[in-house]
Automatic annotation (TrEMBL):
The keyword Signal applies. This is Extracellular small neutral protease. Keywords: Hydrolase, Metal-binding, Metalloprotease, Protease, Signal. The keyword Protease applies. It comes from the Bacteria. It comes from Kribbella sancticallisti. Its EC number is 3.4.24.77. Belongs to the peptidase M7 family.
């Protein structure tokens, strides 16, 4: 896939919005198509989400609103907010499980839990010229798309954990080192680190502190 930068143009956001509107409810649990072979002319780098900072914030806001609404309805003021996700990406089931373990062991104020109903976001898969990305329908649900070709060149667990970082409020920071999860593909295909660094862990805990963090607190991690 050609070298990509974060899309910041209105055209890019419009394309993302069109993709989102196709989701109108629970994704169908259909068998995934076979991954296409790696083509070096079309897969050259992994830059993470093609959304700009505003789109990533919208995704985080939607998931947080959905999770907090469920918590408020339950009447339980829990120390950690539970964010529920559905897996509609069987090819990446192992990587999704591993990413969940990594995040749940790295932060304390939010917990990711797999669910088949009442979920706040879901994972899906396929081939897309944009690669892997996180998006939202603007109505309390979002999804993470995992790209086959990209995952054949770059570490799929790092990709999955990186995109999940957007769910938890972290923006892309491609110029960062391999030790920074949200640097995405900036360090190149040899980088397989799937763990957030101390700054990223601290930021997520701040964003989800005790389940009552304001949505306006989203800031870019540097």
């Amino acid at each position: 896939m050609p070298q990509r930068k974060i899309l910041s143009s209105l055209a890019g956001l419009a394309a993302a919005a069109m993709a989102v509107t196709a989701f109108a409810g629970a994704p169908a649990a259909t068998a995934a198509p076979a991954p296409e072979p790696v083509r070096s002319t079309t897969v050259s780098s992994y830059a993470g989400s093609p959304q700009d900072a505003a789109a990533n914030k919208a995704f985080y806001d939607a998931v947080m609103k959905s999770a907090l609404a469920k918590q408020a309805k339950s009447g339980n003021k829990l120390a950690a907010v539970t964010v529920r996700y559905r897996v509609n990406a069987p090819t990446f089931a192992t990587q999704i499980s591993r990413s969940t373990q990594i995040w749940n062991s790295s932060v304390t104020n939010v917990r990711l839990v797999q669910s088949t109903s009442g979920y706040d976001f879901y994972y899906t898969e396929g081939n897309d010229p944009r690669g892997s990305y996180a998006s939202t329908n603007g109505h309390g649900r979002g999804y993470i798309f995992l790209d086959y070709r990209q995952a054949q060149v770059y570490d799929p667990t790092r990709i999955t954990a990186h995109e999940t970082g957007h769910v938890l409020g972290l923006p892309d920071h491609y110029s960062g080192p391999c030790s920074e999860l949200m640097s995405g593909g900036g360090p190149g295909p040899s980088c397989t680190n799937a763990y957030p660094n101390s700054t990223e862990r601290r930021r997520v805990n701040q964003l989800w502190a005790n389940g009552f963090t304001g949505l306006s607190s989203f800031q870019t991690v540097r």
